[in-house]
Amino acid sequence: ISKTDRLDQQAVRCAGTYMGKVAWITVTLGLVFAAVYLLTVGLAVAGLVPLWIAVPVVAVVTYLSYTILHDAVHSSIGGNERSFRWLNKAMGYMAAWITMIPFTAHRYEHMAHHRYANDEERDPDFHMGGMLDSLLSPVRAALRAWVSQVIYYRKHRWADAPPRQNLVLCLEIAAALLPRLAVFVAGYWVQGLALFVLAWIMGAIILI
Known about the structure:
Blueprint: H1 3-16, H2 24-45, H3 51-73, H4 85-99, H5 103-115, H6 137-156, H7 163-185, H8 189-207
């Protein structure tokens, strides 16, 4: 186990002493967000809900789902109940699928952000500071935020991570991209661009 892993585990253990019981409200909200996301996308692709309604809904749900992902990264959904660690991971993977931010990569990148907060050289989120430089800066920041998750993991974690963890990351990326690509392959280009690109960028901009 690496020094970084030990520090992260120590941080989680310390935080665990302040955690309460399982965050069932968070779990419920996460399930509601997932249901709304799938239902809205499905109805929009089928032409039963207009895109001018579906896009804002998907954007807001994407934004809200990050709260679930963030809590899962910090292992706070399961509280101090060790038997509910699986629930924490399940909610993390589910929210990650909606936000298209891999749980495996984000968990490592986000903990690095906390270790090196506002350190220009080592904080992986430091680049977000320039998002208000121009009208297009928020869009660039949103896209960079997604790409940087995987790049940071590949650069700082991949070589030392257990093979199973790297495999999980690859499966996460495939699970997030393939169903969405299938929508494009099926010929729903407008719906795909609106729901999976425009709405995602809108949700990311709201978040950052």
